[in-house]
Each structure stands twice: as structure tokens, then as C-alpha cells.
Amino acid sequence: MKKVGVLISGRGSNLQALLDAASAGSLGGEIAVVVSNVEGAAGLERARRAGVLALVSDHRGRSREDHDAAVAGLLAGHGVELVCLAGYMRLLSPVFLRAFPGRVLNVHPSLLPAFPGRDAQRQAWEHGVKVSGATVHVVDEGLDAGPIVAQEAVPVLEEDGPDELAARILEAEHRIYPSAVRIMLEGRGRLEGRRLRIEGRT
Known about the structure:
- The protein is an alpha/beta fold.
- It has six helices and nine strands.
């Protein structure tokens, strides 16, 4: 069974969606290890409750490249083939991306390429869009700029504030992230320039 590594910095809400999918046999692989750069991250306990190895690699006092090399080494040491970012609040350096070329996924709370970066839900709400959503993409050296694997649209309701919109987008993230992981683990995603073509899509 192919192995997934998950990087987190906080509560691990999307981690839980991946853990649930793995437990149900719908992820297409197993979560071998969860790594956080924050020692007290709540998501570490989620991993431990699920029987998944949870490790900490503190980034403080280290260069980004040194820290990324250490994390990549941890993941490789546990046979990880696909890396998933789940609320990981650090930009990955080329050192890390070279270790897992085309094999790092992130989930972002907007319909990329709209509203990259932090606080995307508030950005969308303040801009006055009528539709926002969630995107799973392959991570490259740009900010939320890699090829798109999956998206789900979420309507912006008249009564929404940023928090209400964010909550519904998070539900969409939980739905599309596990299915996107499965697509990649099964080798059904094929890059053609910026477009990721998915074989066997129904």
C-alpha cells in the first residue's frame, strides 16, 4: 500500500478528513507519518489517536533549507511517496520540492488562481464574489500556483460573513482532499503543461 506523509502546523482539520478516508479504505493508501513544525499542534494528537506516527521537527533556529531537508529525510525514511500539506504554515523550499517532485499536494480555501495566500476566505468575501470554493493543487515554487487536481465551488450567501463562508469552504476541502489524494496515489493524474489530466474520471 502506498504511503502518505502529512505536514501540519495546527489543529489538523484536513488531516482528520484524510485519516477518516484512510480508515474507510477510500484514500488509496495509508498515512504513514504526520510531521509538525509546532510541538503543541493539536493535529498531532489526532494522528496518535488514529495510531499514526506523529513527529515534531522544530523549524526555529534553522534555515528553511536545513529544516526542509530534515523533514524530507523523515518522510523518506518512512517510505512516503506522496506528501499532503494540511494547514502547514510554511512555504516549502526547492530543497523539499526536489525531494518529492510533483508529489506534494496542498488544499487551499478558494477557487485558485483567485485569492492565493493567507485569509483567502475573507479576501473573497471582501471582494464581493458570488462563488468561492476549495482547490487541491500540486505544490510548486509559486504561492498557491501549482497545477490544479480538484476544485469544488461554494456559493457566497447574502447572509454570509467571512466566518460562515470559511466554515462551508472547509466542508468542501474535507470532501475533495481525500479524492484528490486517491487520484495521485493511483497514478491517474497526468501533467500536460499546467493542466493535470485525470484518467478514468467519471
